[in-house]
Amino acid sequence: MMEAVVVKDLSKVYDKDKTAVDAVSFSVEQGEIFGLIGPDGAGKTSIFRMLTTLLLPDGGSATVDGFDVVKDYKQIRSRVGYMPGKFSLYQDLTVEENLNFFAVIFNTTVQENYHLIKDIYMQLEPFKTRRAGKLSGGMKQKLALCCALIHKPSVLFLDEPTTGVDPVSRKEFWEMLKKLKAQNISIVVSTPYMDEANLCDHIALIQSGKILSVDSPANIVRSYPEDLYAIKAENMRSLLKALHQYNEVLDSYAFGEYAHVAFKDKHPDLSKIRTYLEQQGVNGTDLKKTEVTIEDSFIKLLKN
Amino acid sequence: MRTIRFLLQKEFRQIFRNRAILAMVIVMPVIQLLILPMAANYEVKNINIAIIDNDHSSYSQKLISKITSSGYFKLTGYNFSFKEAFRLIETDDADLILEIPRGFERNLVRENGQKIFIAVNAINGTKANLGGVYLTGIIKDFNGEVRLQLVPPAKFDRTLSIDIASSNWFNPFLDYHVFMVPGILAILVTMVGGFLAALNIVKEKEVGTIEQINVTPIKKHHFILGKLIPFWVLGNVVFTLGLIVAWLIYRIIPVGNIFLLYSFVSVYLLAVLGFGLLISTFCETQQQAMFIMFFFMMVFILMGGLFTSIDSMPDWAKAVSQFNPVSYLIEVMRMIILKGSGFKDILRQLGIIALFAVVFNGWAIFNYKKTS
């Protein structure tokens, strides 16, 4: 099966010395959801803009649907859908007008590919005469997705589609992506949210323009080398300080209301640790083994 | 074609939903045409004059009443010494001092001649210049009258003199409205067209919609045409409104062919819109576009021959004006509206403007890149 996107040593340097994307390589299989996971400023948007032919790469190569992003940009433009991170539809046109407009400039009609957007558009239908600028954040995202889909793209690029969207809408949005995947549309999505990583088939963890790891979320979690423990205490700060000073601890960091700890010993003596913490004056501890998450893997990769 | 039609539909929708643009296109030109020609008047009236009459004769009285009744001068001082009169100049209460010497009437009658003294405050150059000229004219006129009284007509033939009688063509009463209105209309058309075009593409950049447009297979020239045509139509609307105001308020009816006028403006609008689009392809924000456009507009307007005649500019400035599209429009507007010039007369200007249109638009299309 041909790959939807192949990226090889792709680089982008701004102002001669600011490397935004540093020799990035990955490939996206047809009909899968591929996630670019990384914090703000990691270079996700630059990669998207190069893949959608908006930005010329400074090194390396990339193909989308078999077409080169530099040479065959014309073919790419008519077969990808792009949803930029910033809402970029015409705010002074209505929902319907925006959709019609994008259908026309892709030389198609709304009717022709209505089946693709039907599920999403039905929720927008009651507001179709409302101007896009007056829609709620979640509605705007749905409209943008409709506009990006209207020409039946083979690859869909979604740059941080759920940033600034409420949790319910985010969940809905991912449901929609799953349905699109079922239509054999390849989807490349970027997100700063680690919880969304599990919803992708493959993810690339990216930081400062470099890819730290590319694999399926399950494999990334599985390759985490140590067992991970979660500890809770009344006083988080003194707990972290105590863990930090403890020479049996390999790594420790705050993780929500818990602290995640990895120990040097494969089978650590938990009672010994509890006693140590009590000696240090850390009271009310609750220590248990925990599941490794993508976020833990990411933190681990970042520290290496 | 279908793409262009939809692009146009979209642009017009956006324009009609933006009240500020509509106001800018319709209300602003009308108001400016109502106010500016009234204010921008070259005629110098109300020149303040201080007179020192040392003679107090009937002739000096006659001269003074002739000056004050001319309508140009306002007698703000009737003084007894130059020092006193000069104080008025210093306090800006007088622009001119006329000193009539003692024995003015006697010497005029007996010795056939007399000198009088005029001092002009030249801080306001135009006013000083025109005031001096007007006053000299009045005195000359007075001189003629006096001669007619004193010298028997039979002897008249003995002195040779050239008498100049002038008549003003195309604007017989030297009405400044007639002169200013076509020029101001030219500037309005330029401003509305240029600014709207310059700000429009930049707005798409600023809002981010251009990102979405750029990933589509839309052709560059389609996109640019979609921007050009709506503003071209708006420019013609402004021009028509201006002509209506000129006709209703100033009774200016184009002497020449109105279709020729519209043809020229149509080509001209293409050039100005192309210029606006070109600027917008260089800018990232509306603020940048606004300032750059403003800079060029100032140069275009001040060197366009509306306020100061291009003929009286230094050679380098004349050369610069060759590249100023506004100067051609002002020229042609005056030619067709006031003089009734025909197609052949404006052929040169039309050719140059058409060249501007091709260059600006071509450059804009070339410079608008969908990939950065």
Briefly summarize what is shown.
With 304 residues, chain A is an alpha/beta fold. Chain A is 34% helix and 29% strand. Chain B has two domains: 2-40 and 174-367, no CATH class; 47-158, abc type-2 transporter like domain (abc type-2 transporter like fold, 3-Layer(aba) Sandwich).
What's the rounded overall pLDDT mean of chain A?
A: 88
Order of strands in the sheet with most strands of chain B: 2-1-3-4
Ends apart, CA distance between termini of chain B: 28 Å
Work out the count of structural domains of chain B: 2
3D structure, described in words:
The complex is a heterodimer of chains A (304) and B (372). Chain A has two domains: 3-216, P-loop containing nucleotide triphosphate hydrolases (Rossmann fold, 3-Layer(aba) Sandwich); 228-303, Alpha-Beta Plaits (2-Layer Sandwich). Chain A contains ten helices and 14 strands. Chain A has helices spanning 44-51, 73-79, 95-105, 114-124, 137-149, 167-182, 217-222, 236-245, 270-279, 294-303, and strands at residues 3-14, 18-29, 33-37, 59-64, 67-68, 80-83, 155-159, 186-191, 202-207, 210-215, 228-232, 249-255, 258-263, 286-290. Chain A has a six-stranded mixed sheet, with helices on both faces. In chain A, a hairpin with a 3-residue loop joins strand 1 (3-14) and strand 2 (18-29). In chain A, helix 3 packs parallel to helix 5 (137-149) and helix 4 packs antiparallel against helix 5 (137-149). Chain A is elongated and about 70 Å long. The model of chain A has no long low-confidence stretch (mean pLDDT 88). The model of chain B has no long low-confidence stretch (mean pLDDT 86). Chain B has a four-stranded mixed sheet, sandwiched between helices. By secondary structure, chain B is of the alpha/beta class. Chain B has helices at 2-17, 19-39, 58-68, 82-90, 104-111, 125-150, 176-207, 209-214, 220-250, 258-282, 286-302, 315-321, 325-339, 347-367, and strands at 47-53, 73-79, 96-100, 117-120. In chain B, helix 3 (58-68) links the parallel strand 1 and strand 2 (73-79).
